[in-house]
């Protein structure tokens, strides 16, 4: 087989000269994962199936999800993508998608929950039980509370990334 113009100019291919292709660092890979609302808020350890390489080798990874993960956030797993021809490994980036919760919604570190109350409770005031991330909480509903009013439960929201401080929970009447 005649050498190509490229091979003639650069002295032939690595294969023809009996050399291996050069070792190269693997490119980082992005994989999408879906977390439940509770896994994203409280953190969790999940099992993740990773198939990589030319031989489609499969391995199961245990991944620790930190509390407070947000939609679209990426979790970096260093050195999990094999390098090419013995080169250094690349990183695996897990892009998080979070499934909706039946009654909580989230805005950053704050949590919102809508709670229906009766007209007498709103007019006269009452103690009502509301769901929270930590279970149930009792909230005092002031007399004359209007529909759409927000009651704040300080520090009852999501743990902020990288710390122990929490956002707030808002009870929407």
Which structural class matches the secondary elements? Answer: mainly beta
Largest sheet: 4 strands, mixed
Number of E-type strands: 11
Q: Roughly how many Å is the radius of gyration?
A: 27 Å
The share of residues in extended strands comes to 35-45%
Number of helices: 3
**Residue runs with pLDDT of under 50 for 5 or more positions:** none
Helix-strand topology string: HEHEEEEEEHEEEE
What share of residues is helical? 10-25%
Question: How would the blueprint of this fold be written?
Answer:
Elements: H1 5-10, E1 29-35, H2 37-42, E2 44-52, E3 57-65, E4 74-81, E5 90-98, E6 104-107, E7 110-114, H3 119-124, E8 126-132, E9 135-141, E10 150-153, E11 169-172
Parallel strand pairs: 1-5, 7-11
Antiparallel strand pairs: 2-3, 4-5, 6-7, 8-9, 10-11
Task: Write out key terms for the chains shown.
three-stranded mixed sheet; 173 residues; 10% helix; four-stranded mixed sheet; 11 strands; mainly beta
What does this structure look like?
A four-stranded mixed β-sheet has the order 6-7-11-10, with no helix packed on it. The protein has three helices and eleven strands, in the order αβαββββββαββββ. Helices cover 10% and strands 42% of the residues. With 173 residues, the protein is mainly beta.
